[in-house]
Write a structure and sequence with these properties.
It is built from seven helices and two strands, in the order H-H-H-H-E-E-H-H-H. By secondary structure, it is mainly α.
Length: 213
């Protein structure tokens, strides 16, 4: 299965779950889903960090930091899903658009490697296309959802978050390379782990929440 297909299917599955949550409007369903996601993410991260050749103190510090950020991220996503679906849609659109467009841009126009030691497949051109596409699309989406006129403030916030989304992807790749593994897990057959598909969402969510809520 191609990488593009993996990304599209991953986005489709997450979108389907998102629509189910909207349809049922159930706090219990949302809570159970997010707790499951939290458990899976913590398990995958733990496995990656344990495999790294670091001192035990460094591993514990890294785990504490990542655990805290993931928990904060899932909490923010939960608040958005339960109280502000429009803003949740903006968050998902931002991370999915940046991921897919970066990949497509890199495949079609990519020439210069972005970080060859960390992730040989990522290119400078792909990152730029992903960031620019995300800024244009998500700025329009956020303005439409909130019925507001064009705002440079919103645009620059989206720009910053799109850059963070690209960096997040590289950080997850670095963590896997340090652990000498290809995927963060085997939760999705042929797709790797949950962290492989939604690393950008996890890192961006708290920042998005701070900017727009």
């Amino acid at each position: 299965m191609s990488e593009l297909a993996k990304r599209i299917i991953g986005a489709a599955v997450f979108t389907f779950i998102f629509l189910l949550i909207i349809y049922f409007k159930s706090t219990l369903l949302t809570g159970l889903f997010l707790l499951t996601v939290l458990f899976i993410l913590l398990f995958e991260v733990s496995a990656l960090v344990i495999k790294n050749n670091m001192q035990i103190q460094s591993k514990l510090f890294l785990l504490f930091f990542i655990y805290s950020w993931i928990t904060l991220s899932v909490f923010c996503i939960g608040i958005l899903l339960l109280g502000n679906i429009k803003q949740a849609l903006g968050l998902f659109a931002l991370t999915i658009c940046c991921d897919v467009m970066s990949y497509l841009g890199g495949k079609s126009l990519g020439r210069r490697k972005l970080a060859p030691f960390i992730s040989p497949g990522k290119t400078v051109e792909g990152a730029i296309i992903g960031i620019v596409s995300t800024v244009v699309l998500v700025t329009i989406i956020l303005m439409s959802l909130n019925n507001v006129a064009f705002s440079y403030v919103v645009m620059f916030k989206v720009l910053f978050l799109a850059i963070i989304a690209v960096v997040a992807d590289l950080l997850e790749s670095l963590l896997k390379r340090m652990a000498n593994v290809k995927d963060s897990g085997k939760l999705f057959y042929g797709h790797g782990g949950f962290l492989d598909r939604f690393d950008s969402l996890i890192i961006v969510a708290p920042l998005y929440f701070y900017f727009f809520i």
